[in-house]
């Protein structure tokens, strides 16, 4: 894989390898601690330990880079920013459901250029660097290239979403339900899993009304390099809005339009 960010993608894999060992050692542990954060989301001791591990390794290998993490905020100031979600899908993790992952992204000069999503309980990993394609596999040397689907019409599309409650809070429940009624099939895979299925071509779109930067950053280069598109609900490309519409590309305009109108 030739890329200007080859060293960074290799480092992201090293980080993921280390974190996978830690998180798997805590998965389904009887002494796992769980707390509610101010936003009512769950955090465990594994979330915090995973982020601390990544930060410690980055401090040794990329000491000049900024680090932004879900649990411990931002540290440093740089045009290169590592954006970390130590466990995406903590609610699943805490309940013993294997659909969770560590998300590692690198932003450079305002663009997310590297993304790694590692789901060790599923024995799966996905990654991309801008200009070098998107891949899945057990390691860099044994990878399969990712491609989104070629579905062109909503009536033939499979769409994944997170929850009904979020759309109600966003004031878009009617538009959302109307969109669901137009597609061929809907599923609520949730979290990172929807977006990786999109990158693999297994589904055609994934939408969520309320997300944060650490939830989205690592997903963007993977979906983009697989041939898809990632925007917020207003159609602005990238992970910098507070929402996500990800699609194979041909469906994107129709989804945006449907969520802007209740016709």
UniProtKB/TrEMBL annotation:
Stretch forming the signal peptide: none
Please indicate which superkingdom the organism of origin belongs to: Bacteria
What is the name listed in the Swiss-Prot or TrEMBL entry for this protein? Histidinol phosphatase
For this protein, the record's Pfam families field holds: Inositol_P (PF00459)
**InterPro entries the record matches:** Inositol_monoP_metal-BS (IPR020583), Inositol_monophosphatase-like (IPR000760)
Q: Which SUPFAM superfamilies match?
A: Carbohydrate phosphatase (SSF56655)
Q: Output the PANTHER family linked to this UniProt entry.
A: INOSITOL MONOPHOSPHATASE, INOSITOL-1-MONOPHOSPHATASE-RELATED
UniProt keywords (A-Z) are: Hydrolase, Magnesium, Metal-binding
Q: Does the keyword Hydrolase apply?
A: yes
